[in-house]
Amino acid sequence: MQPRDDRCDERGREPPVPARRDAGGAAQGDGERIADGVRGAGPGEVPARLCDVAVELLPVNGASVSLHSDGMPVQLGASSPQAARLTEIQATLGDCPCQSAALSGAPVLACDLTEGLDVSRWPVFAQEATAAGVRAVYSMPLGNETVCVGTLDLYRDTPGALSERELRTARLVAGMMTTALMALPRMEEAGDPEDERWLSGLAADQDQVYQATGMMMAQLGVGTDEALARLRAHAFAHGRTALDVARDVVAHRLRFTPE
What is the mean pLDDT of residues 82-98? Predict the structure, then answer.
């Protein structure tokens, strides 16, 4: 992945207050505060706990974390209903900051969804996000230099850029999120089938999206990408989320036919 940040200019921000920094560049103490935020949490609670910590440490109103697979982000945790809603909007639209961050492997900072380049780049998402009360989105990739497994998405109700210190803190949270997700045992490693310690258990909704996509491929005679595009288009046209439509397909409440 290319080490490129999708940055924006600051607008009307006060200069950041100088802070003591550790060797990694984050404000001293941030690492300890992040660790304290998840201490004692079960594996399934870690994503949401880290989202809460991100909101405490950064000038944002909400945070969510998602796995990305086959172009569809699947939510693992969120700090608030608004953040969870924004995750579903991004999953439904596809063309959005978190998808750009997952594809590039670099932070994507949509600092002003009310005007300018960010609106031109994601016009439909900008409209949906601002309608939901969000004016800026900062998407941080989760993974390493060769693979991106998901994103940490930070939401704010006012336009503006993150300072260098704040961006370092966001990277630190994303790094700890990646470590936590990669440490979770997979299904085949879990001792009890009912135990959702394994990573797949955290993203149970992903199975429904996969199943619905497969059913639509058979119904329409199309490939995976086209089936997923049709699912998203139907969801957007009817004011629903992609996950809601997927559930209807799996439950045989909705069937797609060739045009």
Answer: 90
